[in-house]
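Our working data are protein records whose layout never changes between entries. The record below serves as our worked example for the rest of this section:
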Amino acid sequence: MKARVFLFQEQEKDIDPYPVRMLVTADFLRMDEGSANDDFLLFDRKKQVVFSVNRDTQSYYRFERRNVGRDGKRKPKLTVADNDVSDMPLFQGKKPRYRTYFANGDRCLDVVSAPGFDEDAVAAIRGYLNVMSDEHAATLDQTPRDMQADCMLADFVYAPVRHLNDGFPLREWDYRGYSRTLIDVGEETVRTSLFELPEGYQQANTVAGRE
């Protein structure tokens, strides 16, 4: 089947950069490090279900869209600032947009976006992040209070997709020291098995997303 292929370089604090491949079809989004034999994340766009697959343990975690309620008392004040892009090169013939996202005044996330670029891929990313946001919200009471920073609450619970309103993320970096940069875009014919769970793998958590 045909899939749109997005190649990124990701980096986390104190970790060397590593490659990430994102495959997008009408029905699925898959993220791995570029090989069919890698651990991978698989998002079923129709069923709104995410699978996190571990090759070593031959198991997977399953997370689904649950529309979990959010406690409004914990929601931080969300603001955004536009930044100058006059020196940035064009992407696909258009100027990118560079915005910084805040929570209670703390700088949480910087994103350089391409407005209007591959809106279907943006929708796939949005769906994936919404599923994972439900999981974070459902387990928030189990998260230590000292880990519930304003930016964590904003980026993972209350507003995980606010940056996607500006287009496809070309580059992003956040308060944790994480960054991701788009390196290349293309289209390939890939095996349908890339969008299937490996045979014999066992689910490692309950349907509700708890061990």
